[in-house]
Amino acid sequence: MTASEPTELDHLREIERLAHRVTVEAAAEGRLSHRAGPEETTPLQRSVDALARALRHYHFEGDGCLEEDRPVVRLVGASVLKPGLMPAGVDEPYEAVCARIGVEPRAEGWALWNTWDRDGEVKVTMVVTAVATTEGLFANWARGRALDPVTPLPSQVALVRHGWIGPMTFSPRGVARTGRGGLPSA
Fold first, then answer.
1. Could you tell me if 90 and 166 lie in one domain?
2. pTM for this structure?
3. CA-based nearest residue to 125, from 154, 90, 163, 151
């Protein structure tokens, strides 16, 4: 029995795993400084340090690494709505929140992407089916990485509403742009 060919995402994850191993071994040998380029380090040490800083990116579908022909959506924040698993501060059941927003409940749930219009002036919320992508964003944002998803396919967008629907998890860029400092949305 032969193993199936790895996908591009599997390949990226394997490279990331191996690169992580390099940084772990460099740290164990005392050769990892996590600084941009101290004068006393060699080019190899500076490269390993740069690799260690870059490894904070957790890859997921829709992260833009493979979908180069789709632009990214600059998010201020996002949230995930799922049956039995609602964001902190939401006291309504999943079905009631879906009805209030204007979408049918789905077993997989919904992701709410809070962003701005094309001019960057009007606050809008995109209600999308990209729940796994949103969870991948959260994993990166928790590591301080200001990462945005690629523009969803039209079939992934259920609706777009004026204003932000909250509560939301702020992206690192959203915290900086709004000055919220991690405070809950109003």
1. yes
2. 0.68
3. 163
